Amino acid sequence: MHKPVETAPSAHAQTKTPRLPLSRFKVIDLTLARAGPSCVRTLADWGADVIRIEPPPEDTEASELVGRRDGSDFQNLHRNKRAITLNLKTDQGREILMRLAEQADVVVENMRPGVTKRLGVDFESVKLRNPRIVYGSISGFGQYGPYTARPSIDQIAQGMSGIMSVTGIPGQGPVRVGVAVTDIMAGAFLAQGILIALLDREVSGEGRWVQTSLIEAGLTLLDFQATRWTMDKKVPPQEGNNHPTNTPMGLFATADGYLNLAATSNKNFAKLCTLIDRETMAADPRFASTALRRQNKAAMNEMIADALRAKTTSEWFELLVAAGLPCGPVYNIKEAFADPQVQALRIKRSVAHPRLGELDLVAQPCEITGFDRAIRAATPDLGEHNDEILGSLGYGPDEIAKLKAARAI
Length: 409
Hints:
- About 45% of the residues lie in helices and about 15% in strands.
- Helix 8 crosses helix 10 (about 215-220).
- It is of the alpha/beta class.
- It is elongated.
- The chain has a six-stranded parallel sheet, with helices on both faces. It has a three-stranded antiparallel sheet with strand order 7-8-9, covered by helices on one side.
């Protein structure tokens, strides 16, 4: 049995930070692409000690990672972690992983089902070494069923879950959502499941296998659109920029741009009609109730659109928001981050990278009183913490050199 040896603390280890909610947990990160890393990012950002496992630089996949490592996407996904290289196709690499898992609380992976078993690092194998492990898995279609072995990515899941069928202008055909929604939400759902399993472990003492998939994330994102089918047997169509069921709620052209607005209650609809100088609409029997407005949506929206062309977006926004109606402009991403409310929320946070300088990234989307969601450490370089982490497991300099020579690390 190796005995831990003293190693010089890295810059990461030297950083002193206040206690964070997840600081008592250690997480082993075996993830790739986006869904898995976004899950682990949540755990890392809230203080978990995350050790990211990546292939050694001789590996083709690792070379690709090196090429894009300095990019904004990679830097945003992998901050607040430590990094080690392991070749899990070697006995030495697997043994190092298992020793890390013995000390860990959580392992997260998003390989295709069956790969972890072939490598000998699946839930059952890890659980033999650590019965308290919480093991999180994301896959395209789930760990069982006829499509288990199929590869998948966000775009495939968007199409097969139905998301693309309800996105876009009526008649234009399926449209992809402009962000990787099933990846991001699968990561969020897995993080939620892992935290639930950790809470249960405090009572049961048992580890758990937590599983989700891109297809399940997509179906869950459909929410009321899904139950319009499961309960009402209605297949929702594309609605463009209009809300599928509530009206008036949508995007309208103004004299110089666009305005999102909602006035769905009878009270707010009457208020809107007055503000846009269309009082006759409020008395029109076609628009006398929510159900009637829904039935006559096209005619109503045309009248609203005609009225809104009379003023600029800014003029309408000031008028409507002062009256308490939900409304807002349509920003590009640069404009969104320039908005004073977004700046006040401080979701854009900076972190110092030793090579790249000051980086502006996107912090966690929730605040917890008493804790700071600042980004503590930039994404580590490939294998940056090899010596530190291996030393903590008892490997000495000569043994580490032999592992490098054997391409195990």
